[in-house]
Amino acid sequence: MHDKIDTSACASTGWFEPPLEVLEPDVLRAPIVFSSPHSGRLYPEPFVQRSSLDRKRLRKSEDCFVDEIFADVVTLGVPLLHALFPRAYLDVNREPYELDPVMFADPLPDYVNTGSVRVAGGLGTIARIVSESEEIYNQPLTFAEAQARIHALHLPYHRCLSQLLKRARDTFGAALLIDCHSMPSSVPKSAGEGSQRPDFILGDRYGSACVGTIVDIVERKLKELGYTVSRNRPYAGGFITQTYGRPSHDMHALQLEMNRSLYMDEDSLAKHGGFYRIVDDMLALVSSLLDALPEIFADNRRAAAE
Length: 306
Prior knowledge:
11 strands; alpha/beta; two-stranded antiparallel sheet; Aminopeptidase
């Protein structure tokens, strides 16, 4: 048994009760925490009504079914945290206040980050677009609306994630966060390329967020399972990986991007037969990590002490 994380204090917009869910194992067996921040699919009607897009088009930014793909990791003794709200409504893989001023009717406070690359691309904490360039809103927002979403959704998600990681490190001496995402199968036209993406992209912030031996094991196992794998390009890890990946403090973070075509039809947003294979393969991947982590963490601590 273990102390379960209390999510009852999570705030709510009134549309999300609660805004997140933690799937907990009966017994905590390993220092891994899984996070699926972009698989939420509860779209509040007031949000849809204020959008120029219908629900299906809004879902183009969603990491469809990623929470379901990793749900069975709890049988191996590790937890999964996932958002119930959609990424198009609020993105927890951004700074709390990473906002595009052109979206708002009133001026933004000085502490808001308005100049990041992600804001420029329309994908801040509150996104301006989905897909490549489809504008979400048909009218400006107020900063008060943004602040309410941030307090009700962003802050509780990160508070819960921090608690899960602290529990893992306190219990096992170190912790590994695997932040789970999905990506379109083809490279956007705006990127100037016509190639297909690999099956998986592993993001460790170019080695700063996770000890390399963990990434090596994940890459090797995925290749053994028949998948193509690349590292850090074009996804090196977002705000979550950058924030929680601190190998020198026994805290490691790895972003795992999977190609949506492996398990779903990207036009209809429906699962296909590959979904069941990917579920089994992800369990095999996690099992291989469980066997290797104790020695990796011990080696990392020895190296830090030298």
